[in-house]
Design a protein that fits this description.
Structural class: alpha+beta
Number of strands: 10
Radius of gyration: 26 Å
Shape: globular
Number of helices: 12
Order of helices and strands: HEEHHEHEEEHHHHHEEEHHEH
Helix content: 40-55%
Largest sheet: 4 strands, antiparallel
Number of domains: 3
Distance between the termini: 57 Å
Strand order of the largest sheet: 9-8-7-10
Strand content: 15-25%
């Protein structure tokens, strides 16, 4: 990888240190260059075994060997459990932005519907967090189906699907059109784009269509489906069955998108509880999770003073929060991680207590 420091590591010395000092328990480790810069962050259920595996990797074929070859030292922290190590790994990756961590912890096969900022917002599909002016909805598991549904939504509302950096000119900027106007693609000619690139639509009209799409994505409106149903009914009544089939396909795509969006919001909202996570060595921890993000964590409370202190944290976050709207970009990776963890470990939910129930169980002193 370009830009990384030349290797300075004494592998035999480092291996002896790892062998002597690390334990086989969950943890997070950092590979450091000679300046202390973090090159890579990883996690392990058995830290000693994972770190020693780096010294058995073959250079240059194995990524582990390439990371070790660029490193000067290894630092590590223990975690109470695999879950705690996952959270710590993600947060350290976000903090240090190591060059060898290219994918972070985002699950493969997931994507978001994104609504860009800018003069003419664009609605599209992507799997990585975008800049802060982009709204994210989801996550969705069926990426191909999601892409088709978003394509239909754009067609139905006449929204652009061109490059994000394409110049935008609205019709009220008429003094710019000394020559004939020409759309940037065939979609305007086909009637499936309002043409914000070439002055064929006002800004208010285009943004109104974007607002309709956002209301649909947030489950607040079904106007795109209503329009499709009306066209499908009209085509069927006129015995234009080939057109009725086309409208039915659009209906299926939009209905799936609406239902999948509602399911994603419900799944995120359901992850609001106190999660009691058993530690490998009895060092249990309590995680306060609200809408699929960890808001606070502490050693599992046992004494009255600990109970009251943790109760104060729960009370701070127990109030209602909006269940519609985009996912904050900074929370995307943690949201996906928590959704994935509890989907893969459903038994863990037996150790989860809803926030209001926790407050009822542990009244204020």
């Amino acid at each position: 990888m370009s830009g990384l420091a030349l290797p300075f590591v004494d592998t035999e010395r480092l291996k002896r240190r790892i062998t002597a000092l690390t334990e086989n328990r969950p943890g997070v480790y950092r590979m450091l260059d000679h300046t202390g810069r973090v090159l890579y962050v990883g996690k392990a259920k058995q830290l000693r075994t994972r770190l020693l595996s780096y010294f058995r990797a073959r250079y240059p074929d194995d990524k582990q060997a390439r990371i070790l070859n660029a490193a000067h030292d290894i630092a590590w922290d223990y975690a109470a459990s695999e879950f705690g190590a996952l959270i710590a790994e993600l947060r350290q990756i976000k903090r240090y932005r190591p060059p060898y961590n290219v994918r972070m912890n985002r699950s493969r096969g997931l994507a978001f519907v994104k609504v860009s900022g800018g003069a003419a917002p664009k609605i599209y599909v992507g799997s990585s967090p975008a800049p802060s002016d982009v709204r994210h909805y989801g996550p969705f598991r069926s990426v191909a189906r999601l892409e088709e549904a978003v394509r239909v939504l754009n067609l139905q509302l006449g929204l652009r699907d061109c490059a994000l950096d394409r110049p935008i000119t609205y019709s009220e900027q008429g003094d710019l059109f000394t020559a004939g106007r020409r759309a940037g693609c065939l979609r305007y000619e086909l009637g499936t784009c309002t043409g914000p690139c070439s002055g064929f639509v006002t800004e208010a009209a285009y943004r109104g269509q974007v607002d309709t799409a956002v209301a649909f994505l947030e489950g607040r409106g079904v106007a795109p489906i209503d329009t499709v149903v009306a066209e499908m009914t009209r085509a069927s009544a006129a015995a234009h069955y080939e057109f009725a089939v086309k409208w039915r396909d659009r209906f299926d795509a939009l209905e799936w998108l609406f239902a999948a969006g509602n399911q994603a919001r419900a799944a995120i909202d359901a992850l609001s509880f106190v999660y009691l996570d058993p530690g490998v060595y009895g060092d249990d921890r309590a995680f306060l999770i609200k809408r699929a993000t960890v808001r606070a964590t502490a050693p599992a409370p046992h004494t009255p003073i600990e109970m009251q202190a943790f109760r104060a944290l729960v009370a701070e976050h127990a109030g209602p929060e909006p269940t519609v709207g985009p996912i904050p970009p900074a929370a995307l990776d943690e949201t996906v991680l928590l959704l994935s963890w509890f989907r893969r470990h459903p038994a863990a939910l037996h150790r989860a207590v809803p926030l209001e129930e926790w407050l009822d169980r542990h009244p204020a002193a």
